[in-house]
Amino acid sequence: MFALREILAALLSVRIWWPIAVDDVISRYRRTTLGPAWLILAQVAWIAGIYLLHSRVLGGQSEDYLSYLAAGLAVWSLLNGITSDSPVALIRAKGYIDSYPLPIAVHLIRSIAGSFVTFAHLLVVFFGVMLVQRHMPSITMLAAIPGLMIIAVYGLGVELFLASLGARFRDVGPAVGSAMNLLFILTPIFWVPTPEQAASPLLRFNPFFHLLEVVRAPLMGSWSTPEHWILAIASALTALVVGSAVYVRMRATIVYWL
Amino acid sequence: MNEVRLSGVTVAYPVSIDARQRSGFATAAQIFSFGKISRDNNGAQYVVALKNLNLQVSSGQRVGLIGRNGSGKSTLLKTVAGIVPPRSGQRSVSGTVGCVLSLGAGMDGEKSGIDNMRMIARLHGLSGDELKRAVEDAAEFTELGPYLNMPVRTYSAGMIARLCFAIATAKRSEVLLIDEVIGAGDAHFIQKAGQRILDLAQQSNILMLASHSYSILKDYCNEIIWMDSGVVRMRGDVDEVWNAYIATLS
Description:
By secondary structure, chain A is an all-alpha fold. Chain A has one domain (2-257). Chain A contains twelve helices and no strands. Chain B has a domain at 1-33 and 47-95 and 205-250: Rossmann fold (3-Layer(aba) Sandwich). In chain B, the strands form two sheets. In chain B, strands 5-6-7-3-8-9 form a six-stranded mixed β-sheet, with helices on both faces. Chain B has a three-stranded antiparallel β-sheet with strand order 2-1-4. Chain B is globular, with a radius of gyration of 21 Å. Classes of the chains: A mainly alpha, B alpha/beta.
């Protein structure tokens, strides 16, 4: 089918989407003095604020809380970045889509790659925190890589799904934004769930919890539970299948709606 | 052998539809049930740009497209390019496609001329050595010299036009699609541009060129298609079709 082949062709055109994605991020910093440092500073401010809140006002947190926060916020920004950008990914690329016969999925991959580049910036904050707290990096951190690959698969699925719908129904963008705000609170990012809480339906059926854990836990030095891995992979694959189905169905008319 | 073939192709643009006519939920139901659950779309308006079009162009044919504004020339080129997928019908194109359809899409005023050309070359699908050569060739063609390293927002309109044109015409391809682009420029540039298009056309196997200018059509094409309201009204020898078309204008 043309649409599926197009997704594959887009994935394979690394030499097109990678430079454009990097350029997207660099463009944001043109004519600024601090450039990418702003991203990092913003994150540091966030973390400092929440940490101060807990240590001075709400009554202490464990030693690990700071790095837990740094890791969680970095991974959340990746998930949120991809998901929130999806509805507008194709709309934003309208100029390109109308003028160049590229497989349009390239713009989705570009969006995902952009979010990963931002994530890399925020990872610096995490490693900075590790340095400050004199934690040694462990080999288990490498387990974050398969976690990130799972997130990439999820990203492709959700981009295919939301970008197709978002091109036609302009409400999807704001709706997704609202939903992500809600999930930001419900997902354990700046609070640590106890095992009982983690088993409750609200957390268990939150795919972002699992996608978050499979990267955060390795960064914190543990392998996380099999349940998290299984549910994360399941979420990613479901997103990919549903996304592809919707994209294939809508591909012929997406261009008309942009 | 390169070929462009369109069979029964219909392209119809939806006019903005009132949100109430089609709710997201109704559409979701239709998508997930693969079309079984749906309600008739009352009054959805479409602008039919191409109507059940059949077209075949083979290697060696250089086809000019003429017609009134809104007759479907640009849409036809975009459909052949693969930019606009047909609502119905089949499109098959064998050979690499190069299009010079609209100049300047993707240009970033803050970037330098040469950086913009690199980005646009990438959007055209070039990479590696081919990209380097194309950008060098285009840079030389623009005759912009040291300006190429300055941000595009410092350029005049004519300079931007030269830049856009140069990079848009830098890619060699087997099927070449051009949509009335010459744009602003002084007499020296217009002559250079004309020669560049001619060179490009001679290096391609199939050319489809939309234009309103008889001299361009006569120089570059060996036949003409006259588009009218989304259908091919006439196809044949350059002078014959052109004269028939002109006759209807007066």
